[in-house]
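Training component of the fellowship. As part of building independent skills, the fellow (R.M.) carried out the full modelling exercise for a liganded target. The chosen ligand was zinc ion. The inputs are recorded below so that the supervisory panel can assess the work.
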Amino acid sequence: MFVCIKKRHIVIAILLIGIILFSAIFATNYKTEYVYIVPNSKYLVLIDPGHGGIDGGCVGIETGVYESELNLTYSRNLASQLMNMGISAKLTRTDENGLYDESAKNLKKSDMKKRKEIIEQEVPTLVVSIHMNSYTLRSSHGAQTFYKNGNEKGKTLAMDIQSQLKSNLGYVRGEAQVGDYYIVNCTEIPSVLVECGFLSNQNEERLLIDKDYQDKVCYAIMCGIVKYLNEN
Ligand SMILES: [Zn+2]
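Fellow's submitted model of the complex:
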């Protein structure tokens, strides 16, 4: 009996050591809701989920899903995929709330200002802002990437992401384009805005809320980022 208990203790001790070792190995990469840090990563990608709080962005034509909600889902997915590739990532918006100061007169302005401050504070390698599109013409569909006019590195990054979206999704909405968006204009760091698809198109909305499709879109964006980082 005595020997038996001792054996059991040894087994438990071995199991505990195993669990501690296992945790130690996997704790080297740590993940919270908004920080996906890989030690010694040469790069930091700042992911910006568009909208939030009182600003829900555009709305799904069939399900009424808010763009702000999907932007956050996609941003977390992309951050996880980057971390798996050994690239650190952070999110500007970590929950459903906007980034504005509640007491500000102009909440949209306050929200955008905060996003700019985060870019300046983090000094990331690059910025990717995630959005969903909408248009009155319901047949409009496809993902598209935008960059700041005159930012050559931003243009290369946008083209790399757009070509990966094209090869992974089968179709996109044209080429990467110059876009007049605050998040790409407010910095000289390569910054792009990805419109993942149209919530005003019923078929595309069904895809955009589907987990497998979300994985596919984020995989394509991640591949575009990796291609850019390898070449720049
Ligand atoms: Zn948007």
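The panel noted the following from the submitted structure. The helical segments are 2-26, 67-84, 107-122, 152-169, 182-185, 202-208, 211-231. The longest strand covers residues 126-133.
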